[in-house]
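Figure 6 in text form: structure in, sequence out.
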């Protein structure tokens, strides 16, 4: 589901997002059009957020579960699905020890990426950084 902001602002018109607002947010983007390194989230300055997303992205990619991630899930923490268990274990194996909150948040971000793609996620993250910080 796209945010109301994306219904108003067409992402294809946001090729130079820096012109919309001068932001000083620590989570804001350095290079808003940089999708050359998908899964590295270079547009996110907050290292903790970036590390959680990279970890989750790598886990889902290594397990080849992107199609699974596009399916609805009420709560990842209470899910009995084997795929969720495997993702959580892979995240630990890769080297990030999520708490319950960070795991659920990361999984929701990955679900959005699986449903809408990296570019849409990037725009959503940028808009949320602009209007929520």
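Output sequence:
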């Amino acid at each position: 589901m796209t945010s109301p902001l994306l219904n108003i602002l067409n992402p294809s018109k946001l090729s130079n997002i820096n012109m919309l607002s001068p932001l000083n947010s620590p989570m804001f983007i350095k290079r808003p059009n940089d999708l050359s390194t998908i899964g590295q989230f270079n547009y996110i300055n907050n290292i903790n957020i970036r590390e959680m997303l990279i970890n989750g992205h790598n886990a889902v990619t290594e397990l080849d579960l992107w199609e699974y991630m596009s399916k609805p899930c009420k709560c990842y923490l209470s899910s009995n699905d084997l795929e969720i268990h495997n993702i959580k274990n892979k995240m630990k194996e890769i080297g990030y020890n999520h708490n319950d909150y960070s795991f659920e948040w990361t999984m929701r971000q990955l679900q959005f990426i699986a449903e809408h793609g990296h570019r849409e996620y990037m725009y959503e993250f940028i808009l949320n950084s602009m209007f929520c910080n």
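Caption detail: The two ends are 21 Å apart (CA to CA).
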